[in-house]
Structures are given as C-alpha cells and as structure tokens.
Design a protein that fits this description.
about 30% strand, about 30% helix, four-stranded mixed β-sheet, alpha/beta, about 300 residues, ten-stranded mixed β-sheet, UDP-N-acetylmuramoyl-L-alanine:D-glutamate ligase
Length: about 300
C-alpha cells in the first residue's frame, strides 16, 4: 500500500510573479503569492510544507530551484504548457497600493489534488478566484484544520486588470473552514462595516472557530468565539509590505499544527511578519529562534478586549 503524503501545512493557490513599482525607482520583479510567502514562513518555523498550485511554462526554473532548496515540497505544482503564470503589477503611490492583474494561470481543479494527500492544516489562499467549491469540499476531507485567506475571492478586475474590491459571502466556503484570516478591508467586503462583534459572532455561527483580522502596523485581532484579543505588531522598519499577511498565517498555522495555543500562534504570526517587511521579496524570514524571541515580547503585551 502506498504511504500517505502527510504534511503539517499545505498551501493552495497560485504562485505569482510580482512586479513592484515605487516612485521613480526601476520596477522590481519577485516571486510572490501565498504558496511562496506562507510556505517559506511555515518551513522556517519547522513545519513540513507542500503546495498545490498551477503556473504557466513561463515560470522561471530558478524559482523552482529556490523553493526546492528551501524545503518546499512541490508535489502539487503543475506547469501548464501554453499558459501564463499569474502576474500582478503592484504600484505604490504615497503609501497607497494599486494592483493590476496582467496574466492569470488556470484554475485549480479537483484532479490537481494529489490522491494521497493528508495534512494537519490546509491554507486556501486564492489570489484571483482560482479555487472552486469542489476543491474546497475535497480539501475539507483531507485536513484537520482548514484555513481561508479570502483575498482572491473579494477581488474583481476591471478591463485593464486593475483590482477593485467586491462584496463576497459564500456560505458553502465560509461554512467549511475552521480559521478565517483577512485584512480589515477584506473582512468588510464579507461582513460589511457594521459593529465588529456582531460580524464576528455571525462568522462563528457558521462554524468558524477562529477569525483573524490583520491591521498592518496596528497589529491584528484574534476572535475565538466568546473571546477577543488584540495582538500587537512588532515594530520594524518597513521596506516592502508585500507578503506580510501570508507570512503571518503561514507562521500561525505552523505553530498551530504543533498544538500551540491560538493566542501564542497569533503572536508568532505577527513576529514572523515583522521580518518579511524588512527587505524586498521572499528573502527575510527570520530563523525560528529569532521569531520566537519577538513573539515572546508580543505575548506579554496581548490584551483581551
């Protein structure tokens, strides 16, 4: 009998080629997407990590080598001949980010899930609506903990590819997950701008045990049904914020897979995110002991609200 492929974390969503434009500096290209940032952050924390993703045949070989060299299992990566890799241009102007989708890889389908896959945690992290209901349902069966980052579900695309946020509420998807991680703007596309506690209560009533709302430099909020915690951010010099949310949830799930308390996991996520913003691209993650040291400082400052 074939041995099951068992992981601490599997990240599902598109890799991306990000082109970052800031002021008068030349555009910079970097490997991006949640399968990059979340996977590498989790691996740094000692987790066994796999990915399920699709790219085009334009995906650079050097990126494949980089991921493999850093211990990421690409068992679920498919290179589609004749297709393009998902490509975003990220334009920063006076602190405001505008995103433009230039290319999109094919959807992730049921037959893209390895038949022997089992994982403690699965992170559903679409960036361009590439994950459909059947995939969510199947991965629900394969995971002890199913986590959703809805960024790709709350995006709509204008004719030129410019990203605009759109309302989204899918009871099937939301009712399937154990953890929801979203930025405040993404959360508002799902639950509106009403009283926060009311929106969180409705999400918990769907069966979501944990809701994480990231607030950038203001830290994050962790809701555990009847308890609400303010998780501080670690002060860091921000060079480039791209990928910070993905790193947060990757590190969070790596610790959660080890059986750690969710409040501690959130501090680890916040600490890990403080490293990635200190450099450009997926280069500065911090070693496990460095992340834990910063997390310990944050844990002392957590407040129940």
């Amino acid at each position: 009998m074939r041995e099951l492929s068992y992981y601490d974390l599997v990240v599902v969503g598109h890799f991306a080629i990000d082109v970052i434009v800031k002021g008068n500096t030349p555009p910079q290209g970097a490997l991006g997407g949640p399968p990059t940032y979340a996977s590498l952050a989790a691996k740094k924390m000692g987790a066994s990590v796999g990915v399920i993703s699709k790219v085009g045949d334009d995906f650079p070989e050097e990126h494949l080598r980089f991921l493999k060299d850093h211990g990421i299992d690409l068992m679920g990566l498919k290179v589609v001949k004749g297709a393009k890799t998902t490509n975003y241009v990220l334009i920063y102007d006076d602190g405001v980010r505008r995103m433009v989708l230039k290319a999109r890889a094919p959807n992730i389908e049921l037959n893209d899930i390895p038949p022997d896959l089992v994982s403690k945690c699965v992170l559903l992290a679409p960036i361009a609506g590439e994950i459909a209901h059947p995939v969510v349902s199947e991965l629900r069966r394969r995971a002890e903990c199913l986590c959703l980052d809805p960024q790709g579900f709350v995006r709509n695309f204008l004719r030129d590819g410019t990203v605009v946020l759109t309302k989204w509420f899918d009871r099937h998807v939301l009712g399937s997950v154990d953890v929801l991680k979203a930025s405040l703007r993404e959360y508002e596309q799902i639950m509106g701008k009403g009283r926060l506690r009311d929106g969180l209560r409705k999400l918990h009533e769907l069966g979501i045990g944990m809701v994480i709302i990231t607030l950038g430099e203001d830290g994050s909020i962790l809701s555990l049904r009847n308890k609400l915690f303010a998780i501080p951010a670690y002060e860091a010099k921000t060079v480039e914020p791209t990928g910070a949310g993905d790193v947060y949830i990757g590190a969070f799930l790596a610790e959660y897979a080890r059986g750690e308390d969710p409040v501690w996991c959130a501090c680890v996520g916040s600490a890990a995110a403080s490293f990635i913003v200190e450099d450009f691209g997926p280069t500065r993650f911090g070693e496990r002991d460095e992340v834990l040291e910063r997390a310990g400082e944050l844990y002392e400052r957590v407040a129940e609200v």
